[in-house]
């Protein structure tokens, strides 16, 4: 039944697939011509997993399924903002980053905002994105919604920069890192709590189902129930909040441990990133 209702949505984004394959081939050629120690053993795996996870999240039929319930949506959002950016950053070799930095300095591009400002900006925009009224407005204007998500995605790279940067000078250590990780958890928490509080005081409608209805040319007043009863209810909303809290925490912990493994010769005597 789900497949029938979403038949027009279950498509693969071919241009994005071609772009992902081009990035993959370019990275593999770079690795081939720059063997270790310029590239750490884990970096190719992390980078390729990151960019292909990105394609799965926004270019595969899985994107359509993320519209079906709040919990599916928040799992997709959590991977997009908390899991994928650090994987890609940790997969960028330092030598490649220096070339990118040289290009950046040569063309005198505008300075990138500080990580803490990016973190605060992301937290505010992410919270606003999931407020019922604003989310309903965004789903009515697909271009605006996509622009908003792209902005959040770019900010997510900058906010994870202090713990996953390819530039060792930018990575926070010891107490400074612990403080930043704590701030990250605190700032993201309100967006997670929106779903939990909403579930406790009355469930809200899923605006993404309205978008699906529009694509399928169904009457506006027709309710689409393509999933069992537990979904698109207050329990589903509560799960969405807990999923986001959990995946954000997992993202931070896994990022720190992966960084420690990637740069273990540099961080050999550092006790960092404790749970």
Query: What is the chain-wise order of helices and strands?
Result: HHHHHHHHHHHHH
Count the DSSP helices.
13
Q: Spans of 5+ residues with little confidence (pLDDT < 50)?
A: 4-8, 211-224, 269-275
Mean pLDDT: 80
Structural class: mainly alpha
Give an overview of the whole structure.
This protein is mainly α. Helix content is 69%, strand content 0%. The protein contains 13 helices and no strands. Helix 7 runs parallel beside helix 11 (174-201). The chain is globular. The model is unreliable at 4-8, 211-224 and 269-275 (pLDDT under 50).
Gist?
The chain is mainly alpha-helical.
Descriptive labels:
275 residues; mainly alpha; disordered C terminus
List the helices and strands and how they pair.
Blueprint: H1 2-5, H2 14-33, H3 43-59, H4 62-65, H5 70-90, H6 94-106, H7 115-129, H8 132-140, H9 142-159, H10 161-164, H11 174-201, H12 207-215, H13 234-262
Helix pairs in contact: 2-3, 3-5, 5-9, 5-13, 7-9, 7-11, 8-12, 11-13
